[in-house]
Design brief:
Length: 585
């Protein structure tokens, strides 16, 4: 388009502009002829200079100099998008007294297109399949418009992958774009020299001499001799930071000490106090007001073993517990433990006194999976409905779980599940024989426009020949409450006795689906539907349902959740408010 036509276009565009378009500001800059990211980039390149407008008045000599510089700035702003021959014109208008409008007309012209892409790999990693795959799928191909951001992303992806594969000295020896303005063409040439491939050497820990070397090494996501990876180094730093033992963690490769492609690592640690005493308060509609006092020793015997004790007091549950944890040097999740607990619980469904001693052995498997075996002798004195009884069980159990969320406190996507089987028999000295199978799962699915689906389900089955009265209250299933079927009270759903009191069931089935929409930074709205019940036989299963709306506020310790739920499918449905802290996943 010739320049005269460009000014004609500007003149035509000016005609429909309303009088009030720039009434609020002494000077307005209007860019026409281009849209979307082109216009945004041009507008960002020609902001009104500070001081050009002062006390509501425009400095006209300065404005004229600013106007002269605009065409060059606009053309420079369009080159990253492949437009190297843009035509730019300006017109200064004065629609009212002390008001100016600077119109910038832009005709971007024909974009430069890529006619050739040559990418070469040199060095020890030149035959790496992963690097060759990136070369074949480079973000700019023959015929594409020369968009510089795509070129830079392609370069960055190739370099990052080389470094991820252990080629820490990888660098581009050639990186050039030859542009022919007359032919509207560009030729890209890249040459990446990977250099040598590094492997992890020994890790030197400093600042934490009170912990054994083998104990600290369990937090490392790598072993000496493995291919060096910044990702594994970062994960190791996360593991140490999340151990609740160090307030400062810094892992860095010692490049100057590297020899024969072996890269040693320096781990600088600043320990937290060994002993902790932490009070806590909270509230939930399931538990009522609650308080706790926790004691923890994180370095018992100077071996990194843990000793913890806790007192919990709430309206429905009071208890005292103590535990000992001996971490395995194998990895951060494997351990052996011993837990003792004595508690009293008083709910609308039952009252009980429970004491148990649990020994456990846990072994980490692949992809975040955890296998746990446990033995748990327990004594319980309980009252359910009109019946009171006492039991002793020697439970043996196995639990298999996996947790895969992108963030432990504020997850945006991921899943978790737990599969458990536990049982006992009179031959072991138990007052009854039983086998229970329990499965539980959660999933978070992100959706466009800041929506997400959060779903959970839980099922339980009890195989027992004896009557239900021989099943202690702590092993019966109940439904209803904040983490079950909202709209109903805590443990208010399940089989009933002749007086109408809920006495719990042998089996359980609950499910929930929630649609969540985040807004602002730390808030979200939710709509949900819950269903479920406890039951004794499948033919007597009746699913109770509740639906409602909720609001979430995300904090560093978890989400504060406030829900209002209404019962569905029952006579005289009622509303119930649920409040809890933290997202149990």
């Amino acid at each position: 388009m010739p320049l005269a036509a460009l000014f004609l276009l500007i003149g035509l565009v000016l005609l429909p502009l309303p009088r009030h378009a720039c009434a609020a500001e002494p000077l307005e800059i209007v860019v026409i002829g281009i849209e979307d990211e082109l216009r945004d980039n041009v507008a960002a390149a020609i902001p009104i200079p500070p001081g050009l407008v002062k006390d509501g008045a425009v400095n006209l000599p300065w404005l004229e100099l600013f106007e002269e510089d605009i065409p060059e700035k606009v053309r420079a702003a369009l080159e990253p998008f492949g437009y190297y021959d843009a035509k730019v014109g300006t017109i200064l208008q004065k629609p009212a007294e002390n008001e100016y409008r600077l119109l910038v007309g832009v005709y971007p012209g024909t974009p430069v297109r890529v006619t050739d892409v040559t990418i070469r790999l040199r060095g020890a990693g030149s035959e790496e399949v992963a690097l060759k795959r990136i070369v074949r799928s480079f973000r700019l191909e023959k015929g594409d418009i020369l968009v510089h951001s795509r070129y830079e992303r392609g370069k960055g992806r190739l370099l990052s992958k080389a470094q991820e594969l252990g080629y820490l000295d990888a660098a581009f020896t050639i990186h050039e774009i030859r542009v022919s303005r007359s032919e509207k063409s560009a030729r890209i040439t890249l040459e990446l020299d990977t250099g040598i491939r590094y492997r992890f050497g020994e890790t030197l820990f400093t600042g934490a001499t009170q912990y054994p070397q083998r104990f600290l090494e369990r937090y490392l996501d790598y072993k000496p001799g493995e291919i060096f990876s910044e990702k594994k180094l970062a994960q190791s730093q996360i593991n140490l930071s999340a151990s609740d033992r160090f307030k400062g963690v810094l892992l860095s490769p010692e490049r100057e000490e590297a020899h024969d492609s072996v890269m040693p690592v320096l781990a600088q640690l600043t320990p937290l106090p060994r002993w902790r005493l932490r009070p806590g308060v909270g509230y939930g509609t399931d538990t009522g007001v609650r308080g706790s006092l926790r004691y923890k020793d994180v370095n018992l015997f100077h071996l990194g073993h843990e000793l913890n004790a806790e007192i919990n007091i709430s309206q429905r549950l009071q208890g005292i517990a103590a535990g000992y944890l001996a971490p395995s040097n194998r990895d951060i999740k494997s351990h052996m433990g011993l837990q003792a607990n004595f508690q009293r619980e008083d709910t609308d469904a039952y009252k009980n006194l429970l004491a148990y001693l649990e020994g456990s052995w846990a072994r980490s498997l692949l992809r975040g999976q955890l296998l746990t075996l446990y033995l748990k002798p327990q004594w319980e004195d309980y009252t359910v409905g009109l019946e009171s009884s006492e039991s002793f069980l020697f439970l043996a159990g196995i639990r298999f779980s996996q947790r895969n969320f992108d963030d432990p406190v504020r997850p945006r996507k991921g899943y978790s599940y737990t599969l458990e089987a536990r049982g006992t028999h009179q031959y072991l000295g138990s007052s009854t024989g039983l086998l229970q199978l329990i499965a539980e799962g959660h999933v978070i699915i992100p959706l466009p426009w800041r929506f997400a689906i959060i779903s959970r389900a839980k099922g339980g089955m009890t195989l027992q020949n004896e009557p239900l009265r021989d099943l202690p209250a702590s092993l019966r299933f109940y439904a209803g409450g904040d983490r079950s079927v909202r709209g109903y009270g805590y443990q208010s759903l399940g089989p009933k006795d002749i007086t109408g009191e809920v006495i719990g069931g042998k089996h359980l089935l609950t499910a929930s689906i929630e649609l969540q929409r985040k807004f602002f930074r730390d808030w979200a709205l939710a709509a949900f539907l819950d269903a479920g019940n406890a039951f004794d036989t499948p033919d007597r299963l009746r699913l109770y349902k509740g639906a409602g709306l909720g609001i979430r506020y995300f904090t560093p310790i978890g989400a504060l959740q406030l829900d209002v739920a209404r019962q569905i499918g029952v006579d005289n449905p009622s509303y119930r408010v649920h409040f809890s802290v933290g997202l149990e996943l």
